[in-house]
Amino acid sequence: MNPILVTGASGELGRCILKELSKFSPDGEVFGLVRTPGDAQALSAAGLLSRIGSCDDPASLRVALEGVGRLLLVSPEAPVLRAGRNARVIAAAREAGVTYITYISFLNADRSPLRIAAAHAETEAMLAQSGIHHAILRTGWFLENLTCRLQKDLASGRHPGTSGKGRLSLASRSDYAAAAAVTILNSEFAGQVYELAGDSAISREEYTDLLSELSGREVKYRHLTRKEYGKFLRKGGMTPETSELFADCEAGARKGWLRSDTGHLSRLIGRPTRTAEELLRIELAK
Question: Which of 31, 65, 26, 72 is nearest to 48 (CA)?
Fold first, then answer.
């Protein structure tokens, strides 16, 4: 098998995918694409291989893609840059002779009204026109988007959000990474589009009830308007653009746009997806 290159390897999902692939691929067959020597050093410290290249620098992409047969395309974290950078990666991949791509997209990207979906749908269209065999993994919301505030929630007794009673089909980063590894390792998935989400759905109110039960400390859901939630996220350090997209997604959850019952994710990884309770127990035990 020709080497695999995973883009976005300095991000949490990209790194998780690299670790998952390292379980199945021979040494020297899997690389993470990073922008700086410092990022490369961080991967090396974790026992992972890398190649340096930038989505803004086609020449560096050509060097990074040399000899690569398969590409796992994880979009840049900044959504405003996503479609343009993905276009450059796909063009460089075609020029380098990459034969198969797995793309990490967004749930129902082809029909979702959520703002985050547009650039993903555009990238999917680029792949369709590229002539490169590919699979699409449309990921839903991450469990970690809720649990990342765990200690602050416990300290304040409040869990802010704007999804109300909307139920979210949450899955863990590790489950999405496992699905990505499965599909990039087997080109028989080419031509397939998967809507990936957790097996069960939960609202933020139900999440806080569960957190209270497991921790023995009362935590209440605090509902905010979309505008208030965006302001809250910015105060916590999110960029204005990312905070607006998060708030838009959470508001969309009230209308069911972060819920899916396809079962694609558990079928791909060959086991049930991790539940909110499982992840909370792990986090609370730390």
Answer: 31
Q: Kindly tell me if the per-residue pLDDT of 152 is higher than 90.
A: yes
How much is the mean pLDDT over the chain?
Answer: 94
- pLDDT tens digits for 192-245? 999 999 999 999 999 999 999 999 999 999 999 999 999 999 999 999 988 999
CB atoms within 10 A of CB 76: 19
* Three-point CA angle 261, 264, 268, nearest 5°: 150
Tokens of 279: 């992840």
Go through the domains of the chain in sequence order and give each one's CATH number.
4-140+173-196 (3.40.50.720)
Residue 54 has pLDDT above 70, yes or no: yes
* Residue 28, Ramachandran bin (φ over 0: left; ψ between -120 and 50: alpha; else beta): left
